[in-house]
């Protein structure tokens, strides 16, 4: 029952967001990243063929060579750990830049084992996050954060975002009763039970319950 609820919350987050959308491949020389001020992110399918990673953007039927320039090639390692293999493509959202006809991968925003593109949907939210034990789903709009938890009422309130100086973390302080805050830290987050890898971890103490999970930019 708990597994079913968790998967339902995850799917709700994915459907509500524009994370499974057509690709926005960065223009040549235009950098982007997983940071809170991220620019464009390349969205499409990743294939593994003859020891090479091939990217196919959702917006057009084309194939692009990739070059993993992330630290220690952690991006491609994470995609393989998620299940990328011959005949098993993944849906991916990658930060990086186009260079010399190839996509230079600098990091992962979001990846899912469901290897297909979804229809374009508009969203004004900046963050999505999901977790387990208990199952929860966090979404934001322009200035409002909503938290859904298994077996608990939804919590919604205005929020402010504050990057943490000297670190790769950012804080979301929510005006709820009682007030609480999320910490989002830029590092790869694996959630194999739901078939995802994201570029951020998420954690919060909400009414005495510690919530941890994975976050991304929709």
Topology diagram in text:
Layout: H1 2-16, E1 42-49, E2 52-57, E3 64-68, H2 74-82, E4 90-99, E5 102-112, E6 128-131, E7 136-140, E8 144-149, E9 152-163, E10 169-175, E11 180-191, E12 196-206, E13 209-216
Question: Roughly what percent helix?
Answer: 10-25%
What is the approximate shape? elongated
Q: Output mean pLDDT.
A: 84
- Low-pLDDT sequence parts: 1-8, 10-39
Beta-strand content estimate? over 45%
What is the terminal-to-terminal distance? 28 Å
> If helices are DSSP runs of H or I spanning 4 or more residues, what is the number of helices?
2
User: What structural class do the secondary elements suggest?
Assistant: mainly beta
Give the strand tally. 13
Query: Largest sheet, described in full?
Result: 13 strands, mixed
User: What radius of gyration results from the CA coordinates?
Assistant: 17 Å
Order of helices and strands: HEEEHEEEEEEEEEE
Write structural notes for this entry.
The chain is mostly beta strands. The protein is 11% helix and 48% strand. The protein is built from two helices and 13 strands. Strands 1, 2, 3, 4, 5, 6, 7, 8, 9, 10, 11, 12 and 13 form a 13-stranded mixed sheet that branches. The model is unreliable at 1-8 and 10-39 (pLDDT under 50).
